[in-house]
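[recover] target loaded
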């Protein structure tokens, strides 16, 4: 899964040198980012115009908290590729979260749309912190975290508990030219099966990916256990 994801990311850069990548953090993409960074380092001319925007962030954490999305992306992508000002993301410690969302929204309006977007599938079907709800918000916003998100394993490494989420909205994600959804681990087998049923509902935000014309789903064997044989075999 990680090898295929790294190839997908590399292809995005080959298609467009000034690609704007939207990147999720977490366990699922961790190895893929490492592989991608090493391949870019071997071809430095390829990523000189690459831009990255962070998908989401735990609100109320310090930026260097071990559980923060910022910490993960800095270590996996931003520092290895020396992106500097070609990287932007929500500040987890913003004094006024709504103003922080306005800042990110303004930047994306000026510099978007997203060309390639890497997402993970939440246990409850969330994408970023677009949590299950009666309706979904289109652009960057402050999110009320679901109980499932607050039980995320990443938070066990943190120094404090998050108070809210900061995330790009569903319209931001669906405006991306290409989307890659990574699904790993046995706990994601059920959500992946639910996604592939093709029922679109805000109670399962990932279902809105059915509305996008270019989505690639990559999963590992543990997440594929409930899929029909022809899908498990990649056909």
């Amino acid at each position: 899964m990680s090898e295929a994801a790294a190839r997908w990311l590399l292809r995005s850069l080959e298609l467009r040198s000034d690609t704007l990548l939207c990147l999720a953090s977490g366990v699922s993409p961790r190895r893929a980012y490492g592989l991608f960074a090493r391949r870019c380092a071997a071809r430095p001319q390829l990523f000189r115009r690459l831009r990255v925007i962070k998908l989401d962030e735990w609100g109320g954490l310090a930026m260097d908290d071990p559980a923060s999305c910022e910490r993960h992306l800095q270590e996996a992508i931003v520092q290895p590729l020396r992106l500097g000002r070609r990287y932007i993301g929500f500040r987890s410690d913003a004094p006024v979260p709504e103003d922080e969302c306005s800042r990110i929204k303004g930047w994306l309006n000026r510099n978007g749309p997203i060309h390639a977007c890497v997402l993970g599938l939440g246990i409850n079907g969330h994408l970023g912190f677009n949590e299950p709800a009666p309706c979904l918000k289109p652009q960057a916003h402050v999110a009320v975290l679901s109980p499932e998100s607050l039980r995320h394993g990443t938070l066990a490494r943190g120094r404090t508990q998050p108070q809210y989420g900061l995330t790009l909205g569903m319209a931001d994600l669906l405006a991306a030219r290409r989307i890659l959804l990574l699904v790993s681990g046995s706990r994601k087998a059920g959500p992946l099966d639910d996604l592939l049923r093709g029922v679109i509902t805000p109670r399962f935000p990932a279902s809105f990916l059915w509305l996008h014309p270019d989505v690639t789903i990559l999963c590992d064997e543990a997440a594929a256990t409930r899929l029909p044989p022809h899908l498990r075999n990649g056909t």
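[recover] notes: The longest helix spans residues 27-42.
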